[in-house]
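Weekly structure sync, notes
Attendees: PL (lead), two postdocs, one rotation student
Agenda item 3: pending single-chain targets
PL asked that the sequence for the first pending target be pasted directly into the notes so everyone works from the same version. It is reproduced below exactly as submitted, 167 residues in total.
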Amino acid sequence: MAHRRCRVAHAAVGRVLSWALLVGFVGAAIAFIVWMNRARHNSEAITSDQRHRFRNVWVFVGWFIPIENFCIPYAVMQDIWRGSDRSQPMLGLQHRDTSGLVLLWWLCFLLPNFSISLPPKYVFELTVFATISAALSVAAAVLAARMIRELNAVQVSGPTASPAPAA
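Predicted structure, written out during the meeting:
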């Protein structure tokens, strides 16, 4: 009887934590997309004569189109990074250097999603994949915070600033 109550309590705690995680993830996603949209507008203001590959609407829509959401948000973020670089005003966005920080963030963001779809024969290794997935998710969050900090600093600084070279 006590064992059954423990299982019920454990399941209830699991549900509450799952919902809390979902709410936190959705809140963070909304905040990030709103920030990304503002950074995109700032980037256009900084390099108004240079064209981004995607229109403003793709900052939002690019996250929700299947298959395309593997590349559009990354491309939009690279354009934001390039467009925030004031050191090369005469050079088109597509000819400017890409950011290694943006690439690393994007890889850490995408890879945990692929580990979710493991075939059943790898179930015994699920804890290993879950640990790797969690570590990559934490790395993506840390890299996103660094990317936000660096882009914000560049966008509010003077006309000669450019994003710091990233790894």
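Discussion points:
- The chain has a mean pLDDT of 84.
- Residues 99 and 166 are 6 Å apart (CA to CA).
Action: rotation student to compare against the earlier draft before next sync.
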